[in-house]
C-alpha cells in the first residue's frame, strides 16, 4: 500500500511523523488481525466476549496516540489514517457503541466527510467484511 499511495499521503514529512506512521501501520495490522482471528475461529461465539472485553483498552491506546492531533501522524493526512479508518469502522460494525467513550476517535472518523456520507447512504453495503469461511462478517 505504501508504494501505491501518492507521495503527499505517504508517510509523514518530519522524522516524528515518519516514526508515528511506521509504528501505527504495524499496530493497525495487529489490531485488525485480532478481530480476524476471532471472526474466523470455529469458536467465534466463545471468543467474542473476550474480544469485546479487551476492545476498550485497545481503543484507549489509539485514542491516546491520536491525542489532540487532527490525523494520526500530525496535521496532514497519511495512508495510515485510511487504514485506521477502515479498522475502526469494522470494529464499530462489530460493536456499534465501541467508539462512544473516545471523542477524538469519533471526530477522526467524521473527518472523512464524503466517505462517512457515502457510508450512511443506501448504496453502502456494510457486509460482507470477511469471506464466507468467517463466523462473523461473511453475509450481506
Automatic annotation (TrEMBL):
Keyword presence, Cell division: no
GO biological process: glutathione metabolic process
Classification lineage: Eukaryota, Metazoa, Chordata, Craniata, Vertebrata
Protein EC: 2.5.1.18
Organism: Hemiprocne comata
GO molecular function, a single term: glutathione transferase activity
Database matches in Pfam families: GST_C (PF00043)
Top-level taxon in the UniProt lineage: Eukaryota
Keyword Transferase: yes
Transmembrane regions: none
Keywords, comma-separated and alphabetical: Cytoplasm, Transferase
Coiled coil: none
Domain GST C-terminal as annotated: residue spans: 14-129
Compartments in which it is found: Cytoplasm
Name this polypeptide is given: glutathione transferase
Any one cellular-component term (Gene Ontology): cytoplasm
Family: Belongs to the GST superfamily. Mu family.
Amino acid at each position: 500500500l505504501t508504494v501505491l499511495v501518492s507521495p503527499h499521503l505517504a508517510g509523514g514529512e518530519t522524522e516524528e511523523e515518519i516514526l508515528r506512521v511506521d509504528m501505527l501501520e504495524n499496530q493497525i495490522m495487529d489490531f485488525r488481525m485480532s478481530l480476524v482471528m476471532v471472526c474466523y475461529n470455529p469458536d467465534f461465539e466463545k471468543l467474542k466476549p473476550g474480544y469485546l472485553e479487551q476492545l476498550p483498552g485497545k481503543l484507549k491506546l489509539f485514542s491516546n496516540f491520536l491525542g489532540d492531533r487532527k490525523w494520526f501522524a500530525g496535521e496532514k493526512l497519511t495512508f495510515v489514517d485510511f487504514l485506521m479508518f477502515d479498522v475502526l469502522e469494522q470494529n464499530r460494525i462489530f460493536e456499534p457503541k465501541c467508539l462512544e467513550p473516545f471523542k477524538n476517535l469519533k471526530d477522526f472518523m467524521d473527518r472523512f466527510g464524503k466517505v462517512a456520507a457515502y457510508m450512511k447512504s443506501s448504496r453502502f453495503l456494510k457486509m460482507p467484511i470477511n469471506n464466507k469461511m468467517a463466523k462473523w462478517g461473511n453475509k450481506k
